[in-house]
Amino acid sequence: MHYRLLPAPLKPLADKFYRNQRSAMRVTAGAQLWVAEDRQIVAALCLHQVAHGHWLTSLLVDCARREQGIARQLIETALADCATPVWLFCHPQLSDFYLRLGFAPSTDLPQPLAERLSRYQRTKSLLAFSRISCAGLTAQGLEP
């Protein structure tokens, strides 16, 4: 398995992956796109710069490749050098997964994310989580 930041010219491959998984997710302009590949894309996620950190969106693993640690490794690879807070929204049933990865429930969201979450929660049950990476903790002089 190979994990990498996908170069911009190859981003249409990720949209093809999302379509093949029958997902409405798409790569948005300006986002970093991280993928897991095993001859082809088997997982993807997007990182968007927001406020003083990043917003993790569009995490999806091929249905046939779930429960193999691919999502965990993809997130860890994408956030390895991220020294800023990372926020995400997830369905309640995914809470334990994100807690194991060092994320915690968050009510302190940057304004653009707080507004977006409020809109999403009108039709979906979503929770907000955040994580300060080990690099971010070290840069602040805190213990990870």
Layout: helices, strands, pairs:
Elements: E1 2-5, H1 11-20, E2 32-37, E3 41-50, E4 53-61, H2 70-79, E5 85-90, H3 95-100, E6 104-105, H4 111-120, E7 127-132, H5 134-139
Parallel strand pairs: 4-5
Antiparallel strand pairs: 1-2, 2-3, 3-4, 5-7, 6-7
Describe what you observe in this structure.
The chain is of the alpha+beta class and 144 residues long. The protein has a single domain, classed as Gcn5-related N-acetyltransferase (GNAT) (Aminopeptidase, 3-Layer(aba) Sandwich), CATH 3.40.630.30. Helices cover 29% and strands 30% of the residues. The protein contains five helices and seven strands. It has helices at 11-20, 70-79, 95-100, 111-120, 134-139; strands spanning 2-5, 32-37, 41-50, 53-61, 85-90, 104-105, 127-132. The chain has a seven-stranded mixed sheet, sandwiched between helices. The two termini are 28 Å apart.
Name some characteristics of this structure:
144 residues; alpha+beta; Aminopeptidase; 7-stranded mixed beta sheet; 30% strand; disordered C terminus
Helix count, per DSSP?
Answer: 5
Distance between the termini: 28 Å
Write down how many β-strands occur, each being a DSSP E stretch of 2 or more residues: 7
> Could you say what the CATH topology is called?
Aminopeptidase
